Amino acid sequence: MPNKLKEAWKAGKAVINGWLAIPSAFSAEMYAQAGWDSVTVDMQHGVQDYLSCVACFQGMQRVPGLVPMVRVPWNEPGIIGKVLDAGAYGVICPMVNTAAEARALVQYCKYPPQGTRSNGPIRAALYGEATSYQATANDEVLVIPMIETQQALDNLEAILDVPGIDAIYVGPSDLGLSLGLAPKLDREEPEVLRIYERLLKETGKRGIAAGLHNGTAAYAHRMIKMGFKLVTIANDVGLMVNAARAAVREARGG
What we know:
By secondary structure, the chain is of the alpha/beta class.
């Protein structure tokens, strides 16, 4: 299927991304119906493994046009190939700090001749039936390195110049740690906001989307107005717990 995030970005629109830490097809099925443009299974810090990722993708299929993505644990060809074979239409990869690491990520995500991905899209190509998936996958799969360290900032332009990069994704907590700040989302430090402005400027020059992980919907909306084209709001765990706490407080009259 055409990747609707790519279509939105070409039209200059921002997209809102959900984030799944809970390893449950039922939870994913319910969560996916909230109106997200895409939903990402978090295999790095979520309680997800490969089988739960597949189950979450199956749950998401109830929503036509929803783009399934994965944050992989690391920049490693085995797991990247498997999540793509499972049906991921975007790979968010943590800790990409150099142009060489960005080139490796692109290689792992794409079939030859653009890359080195092995053929075997067991689920992505309709459970092994002959389809046109291999002919279109290189164009439709999103390659998204995370920019979350000082080293990545030092190498930013070289990373962004790697052919095949569709977007970047900022991890504010790790970025803060790398800068000697406390790990948190929804940052207000002037030096961090200046970094965001730089990222938006450099990605904008190259027609690359910039993404950001956010703690609240209000901050995500503000970042869309700032220029980010992919915003995530917390994760399923955070939204559930916050809603539960608010319900308990209201019931107690607090």
